[in-house]
Amino acid sequence: MRKLTAVAMALCVASALAACGSSSNSTSSAGATASEASSSSSKGAINVLDITATSGATAIFGAQETLGMQAAAAYYNAHGGILGRKVNIVVKNDNSDPTTATQIATHELASNASKYAMVWVGEEGTVSAALVPIVKRYNLFATSVNDGNSACLKASACPTLFTQAGPIAAGEAADTAALKQAGYTNVGVIAEQGTYDQSELQYMLPDLKAAGIKYTEVTFPPTAVSLTPEMSQLKSAGVQAVFAMTLGPAGGYVLGGRAALGWNVPVQFDVAGSTVDVASLVPKGDTSNVKETIQYCEDIKHNNPGFNAMVQYAPSKLAGNIACPIAGDGWGGIVLLANAAKAAGSLDANSLIKAAQGLDIKTNEASSPEKCWTSANHEDTCQGPSYYEIVPLGSLKQTRVYPLQ
Amino acid sequence: MAITIWTGLVLGSIYALVATGFTIAMVPTGVFNFAQGAIVVGGTFVTYQLLTVSGTPAGLALVLVVLVGAAAGLLCEVLTVRPLRWARGNVDNALVTTVGASTVIAGLIGVKWGYLPLQVTFPGPSGFVHFLGTVASPVQIFVVGTAIVATFVFEAFFRYTRRGQAALAVAEDRDPAMLRGVNVSRLSLVAFTVAGAFGGLVGYLIGPITYADAILATTIALYGFVAVALGGEGSFVGGLIGGLVVGLASTFATTYIGANYGDLAVLVLMLATLALRPKGLGGAAVARSV
């Protein structure tokens, strides 16, 4: 029994150790060496603290966002730097865990806050939401994909954070509109009980209700390896279509469950589900009558300097379908810093924040054609439901131009 | 209901297979090899590389995956257990060093294949089988069958063969076993190697169900541990029962109560079991002195 207790204790710390194993400074100097790194207020390299997941459930996002940031750092370093200084990305692994992320941030910033010109606060919403108060406390200029709870719609709630994506509700609104347009009045919602999908569910369900669409909701844990029982529940409920809010392999389990039940119900994946190439997870015959939600990206084949530069300068190959929307947001974080610094003529946090509040960036973006923030709203106010499109599964291409042509 | 039961059995069989790997190494060495989960997941990726990417014949791929698993298990013993035995005369800290090995393996997988799930080809029959009100894929049937067969094969080996009994003797009391000529050091090496090979085999089997997914290593190690704790440390049959109970409890709680309750149900079950039977379901009841 004593041995089992020891084993249990060791397992409890295993996740934390896994994070520690890779949370040592992983500096992507992209031309700058560790010795060049110094206070952001000096003339050394500009340090950007990247708190993200390179292990755990949301490493899918964290690894790609980091590649995007590293690519942007390399790009700017090759073009004279930002305000003439090189950019240095300091990566800290939060192991996909908000608690670990806050521990890392608190530990790192307690003694080194002045070292950083900007902080990337997490790979996804719940981690970002946990880190917002910390960067606020240290008055650090910060960015992330989103804030997890749309708090930044009111700038006063997150005065130092500027998100790369628009409101979470935008994608859900686009999905609801598509379901309504298809004529469905009774849909099933199958959602992962993970932090990422749950933060989106709070917008989706009211949207469905407001659109007059009845829904049956089933959830499943991230540890599931089959969703046949959940799909069977939805089949019994007589739904006309299934809206799937999944992340990673669960997208394949949804379609696998559908195939096992011999039920060719229409399935529509949300934007999170579409960050994985779902079509590659199931046999070809299982992909019929399936749609996915894409986020617009710039045309990479036709004169998109931002995306092409990101691909060129990335330290390793970007992942297929998520290169544009995910890595592109990491890239956008450094583009934001560069533009804010240029506008402010300084790397002082207050100056950067003030400058960012009036920015409207129309060039060099990779994940969307334009990004802008105001003094009242720190989420990308240029982005709305029209940035999303629902397309047949497998049609996801990184060759789309906004607006659709 | 039948679909839920079958899904629970499949999930439980995966945990039971991981528990079997834990037990193979634990019986003769007393070491709980945390890296076993990562070795299994590594097996899914090697299988993906061989079957899906390279188009290697299924039989050859199976042999190669098992060999890679064996090599990983052997390296775990040499790098994380043996140095402790040499330096300290015991392997108490192997709890920590094998966690380190697990982290290294998971990290290498992430570097090589990334963090996106990858579909692993199943070389057997496709389609679905309908029976007793449920529906199953052939690979699921293979996984459940292998979990049961492997349990009894290893149980029989350790009970009825001379080498198995030598391992049990070491587990019972290491020093007398050494005095009677059992090469404890070699036994440890063999146990880890066999556990690793079995981990590779498990990866080959479960890959088509779980996908090759780097983040799975910690999850299956945790649930495999719970299966061992529930079933009784050192018992293969106990590990099977523990795995199936965990899989069924988790699936039923998730389906009929809510997704948040799967882990809670397993935890409550484990605490209740260990409170009543400290040595687990497969262990002997312990008399208390009052």
Task: Summarize it.
The complex is a heterodimer of chains A (405) and B (290). Chain A has 405 residues and is an alpha/beta fold.
Characterization of this structure:
The complex is a heterodimer of chains A (405) and B (290). Chain A is 39% helix and 16% strand. Chain A is α/β, with parallel strands linked by helices and 405 residues long. Chain A has 2 domains: 2-167 and 301-385, Response regulator (Rossmann fold, 3-Layer(aba) Sandwich); 169-296, Response regulator (Rossmann fold), CATH 3.40.50.2300. In chain A, the strands form 3 sheets. Chain A has a 6-stranded mixed β-sheet, sandwiched between helices. A 6-stranded mixed β-sheet of chain A has the order 8-7-9-10-11-14, with helices on both faces. A two-stranded antiparallel ribbon of chain A has the order 12-13. The longest helix of chain A has 22 residues, at 323-344. The N and C termini of chain A lie far apart (67 Å). Chain B is mostly helical and 290 residues long. Chain B has one domain. Chain B is built from 11 helices and 2 strands; from the N terminus they run H-H-H-H-E-E-H-H-H-H-H-H-H. A two-stranded antiparallel sheet of chain B has the order 1-2. In chain B, strand 1 (129-131) and strand 2 form a beta hairpin. Chain B starts with a helix and ends in a 14-residue tail after the last helix. Chains A and B meet through helix 1, helix 2, helix 7 and helix 8 of A and helix 1, helix 4, helix 9, helix 10 and helix 11 of B.
